[in-house]
């Protein structure tokens, strides 16, 4: 069984896709051992609790410095003894003490086709706003390993999604989630859990 820790900050629809995938058997040999949020109010924490998964919050607001927060984050991760850390809408810059402790063991879902619309400042709705502003005809999502850069690690899976003429950032975000993110994130975890990484 691959022990997975999922890090979240918001609604948690990608977390839900993982929970559902494990339940349906499309993600095999995997258990989510802890869900960790930096945001106490993240609905993702409720999703975890409903699924009977331990849900914890490590908030930067409770620490005097970024360094103290980073240490607490790493401690909470370590306590769960994960084989794999999945960033599913986790809007915290991963500290180098974490990437050093878990080389090639952290993956992230990003809502564009990397290397487009990624890096510092590109997260959530901002990614889709930028894609629409540039006028691309296709966007999509990417699952990649996390290294010390922002969205720079090796790519595991990508899936393109068509941009339609009347799209708003919100409409495009939803289509990218439905047609790409909720498929490729569970698929990547299943691959890694079953020796196809
Ligand atoms: C997702 O679209 C994910 O790709 C994005 O945040 C959203 C979280 O939604 N992540 C990033 O932008 C990371 N740079 P969710 O909480 O419903 O899964």
Description:
This protein is of the alpha/beta class. It has one domain (about 1-195): Rossmann fold (3-Layer(aba) Sandwich), CATH 3.40.50. Helices cover about 40% and strands about 20% of the residues. Strands 3-2-1-4-5-6-7 form a seven-stranded mixed sheet, with helices on one face. The chain starts with a strand and ends with a helix. About 40% of the residues are buried. The mean pLDDT is about 95. Bound molecules: glycinamide ribonucleotide (GAR). Glycinamide ribonucleotide (GAR) binds near residues 11, 14 and 88.
Summarize the structure in short.
It contains six helices and seven strands, in the order E-H-E-H-E-H-E-H-E-H-E-E-H. It is of the alpha/beta class and 197 residues long. The chain has one domain (2-193): Formyl transferase, N-terminal domain (Rossmann fold, 3-Layer(aba) Sandwich), CATH 3.40.50.170.
């Amino acid at each position: 069984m691959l022990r997975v820790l999922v890090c979240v900050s918001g609604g948690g629809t990608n977390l839900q896709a993982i929970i559902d995938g494990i339940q349906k058997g499309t993600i095999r040999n995997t258990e989510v051992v802890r869900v960790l949020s930096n945001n106490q109010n993240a609905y993702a924490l409720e999703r975890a609790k409903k699924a009977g998964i331990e849900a914890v919050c490590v908030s930067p607001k409770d620490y005097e410095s970024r360094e103290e927060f980073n240490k607490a984050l790493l401690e909470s991760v370590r306590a769960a003894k994960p084989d794999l850390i999945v960033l599913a809408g986790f809007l915290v810059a991963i500290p180098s003490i974490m990437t050093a402790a878990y080389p090639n063991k952290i993956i992230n879902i990003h809502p564009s086709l990397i290397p487009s619309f990624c890096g510092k400042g590109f997260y959530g709705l901002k990614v889709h706003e930028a894609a629409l502003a540039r006028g691309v005809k296709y966007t999509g999502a990417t699952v990649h390993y996390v290294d010390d850069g922002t969205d720079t690690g090796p790519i595991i899976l990508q899936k393109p999604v068509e941009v339609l003429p009347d799209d708003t950032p919100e409409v495009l975000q939803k289509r990218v989630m439905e047609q790409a993110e909720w498929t490729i994130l569970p698929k990547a975890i299943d691959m890694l859990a079953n020796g196809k990484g």
